[in-house]
Amino acid sequence: MKEFWKIIKRYVRPYVGYLGGSVLLNILSAVFNVFSFSLLIPILKMLFDTSGASFEFIPWGQVRDFGDITGNIYYFVGGWIETYGHSRVLLGLCLTFCAITLIKTTCYFGSSAVMVPIRTGIVRDLRMEIYRKILSLPIGFFSQERKGDIIARISGDVGEVESSITSTLDMLIKNPILIIIYLTVLCFMSWQLTLFTIIFAPVMIFIMSLIGRKLKARSLEAQKYWSDTMSQVEETLGGLRIIKAFLAEKKMGDRFNKVTAGMKRKNTLVGVRQASAHPVSEFLGTVMIAIVLWFGGTLIISESTTIDAPAFIAYMTILYSIIQPIKDLSKAAYAVPKGLASMERIDKILDAVNPLEEPSEPLELGSFRKEIRFRDVDFTYDGSRMILQGINLTIEKGKTVAIVGSSGAGKSTLVDLIPRFYDVCAGSVEIDGKDVRKLRLADLRSLIGNVNQEPILFNDTIYNNIAFGVEDATPEQVEAAAKIANAHDFIMEKPLGYQENIGDRGSKLSGGQRQRISIARAILKNPPILILDEATASLDTESERLVQEALDRLMSTRTTIAIAHRLSTVKNADEIIVMSEGRIVERGTHDQLIEQGGIYRKLYDMQSL
């Protein structure tokens, strides 16, 4: 339970006010519940079987035990009967019982209603914390994690925390209050009976703990299968075209069936064990009631008893009322380990270390004025293989530098070091002489615009995709950016124009249209540094022409780093960098590299053929 209280301390703090209200209302509910049972039953018993004249009033300051209290109540009710008659007193007692019950149930409802904002608030805060952590983690973290697994944690695991932990929070506040108040009253009524009862409570709790001991481990395994299931679904949706083209429906179905069958087995074990909570606690509670009933009966029969029959009826009623809170606690003891298993998986994201630390005293960057420089840069993803080695490169402001080479040469990794998607392992990347690791990330990335081979668009309107990342963009600015990107004409052909929704990842648009929307977004941001990662590689000839025209306009006033497979698109670059196996092997203008007759010349000749 240590982990549970850590979670509560972590997320309940903003809702302490609600928590205090719940505690107060639960106390009132328990007190009025005690009144309704402990007072009304003896009074009704006396009303029908006992004369009030047989009881003497004991001053309240001299009251010693519960018997003296009930004796005084008998005395007053007896007087009322003599004054008003049995019928009127009975009616008054019934109305009193209804009033007490109304107050009790109102407090009970209030205590539960007050907990709702806490439960929903904790779930919202938890999801927001995970989401913010996902946004803050570097790209490298997600290359090692499956997207389906992360989705499962923010959906299924958080849902499990909601149903297993936050939903039991009400039980863990209410039930201890009820148990403490009921036990206090029971001790006051008969400490001998209560002591006898308490002896059996640890036995009951021990048996319940034995049953729930393996729930956390089983739940952890079940949630892992849930992650595998979500990963399978995510992969299937992303690769549906290939699955159908290769007639792999049965193969994928078998894979999915294997995962879901494993999840079914684990969930069955967890469910059966959890389902045993109610019947086991019911049986143990009945056994305890029977034992107390036997022991209490022997006390009443003996002449030395401190409790009479009416008080014993009240005692047994309150004792039976204490069974339900104990059963609810046992359910919570089952549910909490399931939630803790899910929280353990969530914490793997929340506790993930971000290697890209913000500098404690960042340098002021201002605007981009001079150059980008790579100094003796080495880089590796996992330490096993060097991706970049000994990179020395200077990119002056206003120049266009193209980076070419075979797949796996390290081109994309090289440009990813500029906006600090990764940090160098040795050497440095500098902007205007300042190491990018000493700059504030927001300042650094505000200078850089990206246009990728696969346009990254969102399931939103064309307008919002172009204006993405630019605060307070006006319709005129968005339209101007679209015109420069050769996108305005096809946008206006859409039924809703700029308010047309483009679907998931821009699925309602062609490849060239998606790319032009991506370019318009970069134009609107108006960054001084532009990174183009094979922006025309996947386009047909006509789309490539339109996109290249838009890129030429975009590049004309900016420092541009362009990764390209089609060498014809970078012939006019100020400098072309040729990479092979993580090193710069050639550099120069197009004409100079052709004259050298090296790797670039071979690549150019092959593309010409």
**β content, as a range?**
5-15%
Number of helices: 22
State the strand order across the main sheet.
Answer: 6-7-8-3-9-10
Number of strands: 10
Radius of gyration: 37 Å
Residue ranges: pLDDT <50 for 5 or more in a row?
Answer: none
CATH secondary-structure class of the largest domain: Mainly Alpha
The major β-sheet equals: 6 strands, mixed
Helix content: 55-70%
Q: What coarse outline follows from CA principal-axis ratios?
A: elongated
CATH fold naming of the largest domain = ABC transporter transmembrane region fold
Termini distance? 70 Å
What CATH architecture of the largest domain do you see?
Up-down Bundle
- The overall number of domains is 2
CATH superfamily grouping of the largest domain: ABC transporter type 1, transmembrane domain
SS content category: alpha/beta
Average pLDDT: 79
